């Protein structure tokens, strides 16, 4: 309130802001001004864009420009470089490290991620770190303190599917429920009906793929691919490779390879950690651009410009830091059991084609076979690695002599075929040859055994020949099945049994190669795929994409008896879950086969018990359905009787419920109708 002029103003006593006697200030600056102190400048400000490259060659002024050009060419792939500084000594020699400043922090991080541990040559491996990391390492406490114990986390058991007591395999069925929505059913092959373990909608965008040993299942998505495993198929890892169209998994399941659209970008990942191990750029998706793995995951190789590039997976650098140059090379393949590569080279003028076996990592040529008049070659390894077959397409030619022999004409009369069989387990790797004059339609090795089969002749009336190879002997023709309408061969994974299939007509013949008897024949109209289960007990044929009304799959026994027919709308894919190789020795397996009759009664009793249990369950199910129907019918009859009074009121008290049963209430009437009138003229 304002006071009049001349009046004295009263002022209150000013507050005292001094600390009381004995006061101790225990509030830290960080607690009081935490947000403000975060803005305090520090030594590392402005250096997030800078990296330190160590282990660079020490050079003088004469070689400095060359070194600088190599370093800048290598590091500019990560982003725009602003400045490069090389510390030097009094004699103008570099000190073995350099500072590189990028335009932004993202480029610096990419350089560290992609070029750390990069091998410049066989003597120098670059070490790349961010400059700001030095502050982090300098803040390490001098006194060590033990880490805090973490609570135990139960890991998902990835191999529980192998301990199923009845050795019942698993499989997945992929179908498109609605456009753009893919459903995957994961099932156990129990008898008489399979058990659905998981049914997942939108589990994948396109299709799925099992790993070679069945540990993981891979799904495809717009953002990349995901790997699942365990009893509940939980996510193990995900790999951010957008629009990946195809994947490949190494034989020992350590690495995953993703191929981008048209195969232009190829990335190798560590499955367990999700780390990117190596990336490649390809011109497009082709057989030559595909990466190929050694049996033990130690090496991965690819074919580029007449070179085989082999990478050691311990470092993912080229083996011995150089490629294997082979002029005219067309294709190569790894042995499924040894670190041996087989490759073939095309024929040139006055230089024959050849097939070469090379041991890795020594790069020693173990065997070379020269071939003449070659049009094409196909390499087929036996699963056990005991034999290698090279199918050779050859020209039949004759020379027409002229007066001047130098100008002789060469005429090609047709084609014939050779199968070059390499005996890999014998000394000096001897090679035998099998010649076939007719057109070859299919070739397949017996996975476990020493036989191979060939379909040759015209598709409408082909012959199927079976050969057997033995140590120190040439392949022997053991059986020839004539006039067979088949185009594909599908051996049981356990050997002995084979399916002769015609995938155009959907016909199948089941053959026992012990005595070459045809156990049974069957047909599945428009079937386009055949899948053996890992144990060799069941075969599945499937139809997808051709006719909507016939889509689905059939399950057969190995003897050709149909066990079930499943019609599934928009069926896409059926895949058995693979199994890893057995841990039993060969001697133990032979002992089990020899004494199999001892276990026969146990298996028979189990099967009878299972079928009895299944029959009992079926009877109980039918009885329950009958009881439900009887209850429903009784309920409706009682409702009908309760409504009778109301019906009579609506119908003038006339009981119409029994009109049809009373013969006096029925009138018979005969009605004649002229259907057609024909006129016939008689001459």
TrEMBL record:
List the InterPro entries: EIF3B, eIF3B_RRM, Nucleotide-bd_a/b_plait_sf, RBD_domain_sf, RRM_dom, TIF_beta_prop-like, WD40/YVTN_repeat-like_dom_sf
The protein's matches in CDD domains, at most eight in alphabetical order, are given as: RRM_eIF3B (cd12278)
Any one GO molecular function term: translation initiation factor binding
Q: Name one GO biological process term.
A: formation of cytoplasmic translation initiation complex
Instruction: Read off the Gene3D superfamilies from this record.
Output: 3.30.70.330, YVTN repeat-like/Quinoprotein amine dehydrogenase (2.130.10.10)
Which UniProt keywords are listed?
Coiled coil, Cytoplasm, Initiation factor, Protein biosynthesis, Repeat, RNA-binding, WD repeat
Region (Disordered), start-end ranges: 1-25
Residue intervals of the RRM domain: 49-133
Gene Ontology CC entries for this record: eukaryotic 43S preinitiation complex; eukaryotic 48S preinitiation complex; eukaryotic translation initiation factor 3 complex
* Predominant cellular place of this UniProt entry's protein: cytoplasm
Q: Which SMART domains does this one have?
A: RRM (SM00360)
Query: Which cell locations does it reside in?
Result: Cytoplasm
Q: Does the keyword Protein biosynthesis apply?
A: yes
Which intervals carry biased composition (Acidic residues)? 9-25
Subunit-level organization: Component of the eukaryotic translation initiation factor 3 (eIF-3) complex. The eIF-3 complex interacts with pix. Interacts with mxt.
Please give the family membership noted in the entry.
Answer: Belongs to the eIF-3 subunit B family.
Q: What does this protein do?
A: Component of the eukaryotic translation initiation factor 3 (eIF-3) complex, which is involved in protein synthesis and, together with other initiation factors, stimulates binding of mRNA and methionyl-tRNAi to the 40S ribosome. RNA-binding component of the eukaryotic translation initiation factor 3 (eIF-3) complex, which is involved in protein synthesis of a specialized repertoire of mRNAs and, together with other initiation factors, stimulates binding of mRNA and methionyl-tRNAi to the 40S ribosome. The eIF-3 complex specifically targets and initiates translation of a subset of mRNAs involved in cell proliferation.
Q: What is this protein called?
A: Eukaryotic translation initiation factor 3 subunit B
């Amino acid at each position: 309130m304002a006071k009049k002029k001349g009046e004295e103003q009263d002022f209150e006593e000013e507050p005292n802001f001094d600390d009381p006697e004995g006061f101790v200030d225990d509030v830290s600056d960080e607690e009081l001004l935490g947000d403000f102190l975060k803005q305090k400048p520090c030594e590392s400000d402005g250096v997030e864009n800078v990296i330190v490259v160590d282990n660079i060659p020490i050079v003088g002024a004469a070689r400095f420009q060359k070194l600088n050009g190599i370093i800048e060419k290598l590091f500019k792939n990560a982003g725009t470089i602003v400045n490069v500084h090389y510390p030097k000594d009094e004699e103008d020699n570099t000190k073995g490290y350099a500072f590189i400043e990028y335009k932004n922090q993202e480029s610096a991080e990419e350089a560290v991620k992609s070029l750390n541990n990069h091998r410049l040559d066989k003597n120098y491996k670059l070490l790349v770190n961010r400059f700001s990391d030095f502050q982090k390492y300098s803040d390490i406490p001098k006194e060590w303190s033990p880490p805090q114990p973490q609570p135990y986390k139960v890991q998902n058991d990835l191999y529980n599917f192998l301990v199923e007591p009845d050795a019942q395999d698993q499989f997945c069925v992929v179908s498109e429920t609605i456009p753009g929505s893919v459903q995957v059913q994961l099932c156990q092959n129990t008898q008489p009906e399979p058990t659905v373990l998981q049914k997942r909608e939108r589990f994948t965008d396109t299709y799925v793929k099992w790993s070679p040993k069945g540990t993981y299942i891979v799904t495809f998505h717009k953002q990349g691919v995901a790997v699942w495993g365990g009893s509940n198929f939980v996510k193990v890892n995900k790999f951010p490779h957008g629009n990946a169209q195809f994947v490949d998994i190494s034989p020992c399941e350590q690495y995953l390879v993703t191929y981008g659209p048209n195969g232009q970008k190829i990335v190798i990942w560590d499955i367990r950690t999700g780390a990117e191990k190596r990336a490649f750029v390809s011109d497009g998706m082709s057989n030559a651009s595909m990466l190929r793995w050694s049996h033990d995951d130690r090496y991965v190789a690819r074919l580029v410009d007449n070179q085989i590039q082999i990478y050691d997976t311990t470092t993912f650098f080229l083996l011995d830091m150089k490629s294997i140059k082979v002029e005219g090379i067309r294709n190569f393949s790894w042995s499924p059991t040894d670190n041996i590569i087989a490759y073939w080279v095309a024929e040139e003028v006055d230089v024959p084609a050849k097939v070469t076996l090379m041991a890795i990592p020594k790069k020693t040529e173990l065997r070379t076979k020269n071939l003449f008049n070659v049009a094409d070659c196909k390499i087929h390894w036996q699963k056990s690695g005991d034999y290698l077959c090279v199918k050779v397409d050859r020209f039949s030619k004759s020379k027409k002599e002229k007066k001047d022999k130098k100008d002789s004409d060469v005429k090609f009369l047709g084609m014939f075929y050779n199968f070059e069989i390499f005996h890999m387990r014998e000394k000096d790797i001897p090679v035998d040859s099998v010649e076939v004059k007719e057109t070859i339609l299919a070739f397949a090795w017996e996975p476990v055994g020493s036989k191979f089969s060939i379909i040759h002749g015209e598709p409408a009336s082909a012959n199927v020949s079976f050969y057997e190879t033995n140590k120190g002997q040439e392949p022997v023709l053991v059986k020839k099945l004539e006039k067979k309408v088949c185009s594909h061969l599908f051996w049981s994974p356990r050997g002995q049994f084979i399916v002769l299939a015609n995938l155009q007509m959907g016909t199948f013949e089941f053959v026992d190669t012990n005595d070459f008897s045809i156990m049974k024949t069957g047909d599945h109209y428009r079937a386009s795929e055949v899948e053996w289960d890992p144990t060799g007990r069941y075969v599945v044929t499937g139809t997808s994409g051709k006719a909507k009304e016939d889509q689905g799959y059939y399950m057969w026994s190995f003897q050709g008896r149909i066990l079930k027919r499943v019609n599934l709308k928009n069926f896409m894919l059926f895949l058995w879950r693979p199994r890893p190789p057995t841990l039993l020795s060969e001697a133990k397996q032979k002992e089990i086969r020899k004494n199999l009759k001892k276990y026969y009664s146990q298996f028979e009793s189990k099967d009878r018990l299972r079928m009895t249990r299944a029959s009992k369950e079926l009877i109980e199910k039918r009885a329950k359905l009958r009881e439900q129907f009887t209850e429903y019918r009784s309920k409706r009859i009682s409702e009908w009787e309760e409504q009778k009074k109301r019906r009579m009121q609506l119908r003038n008290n006339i009981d119409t419920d029994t009109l049809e049963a009373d013969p006096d209430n029925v009138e018979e009437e005969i009605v004649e109708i002229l259907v057609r009138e024909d006129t016939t003229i008689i001459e």
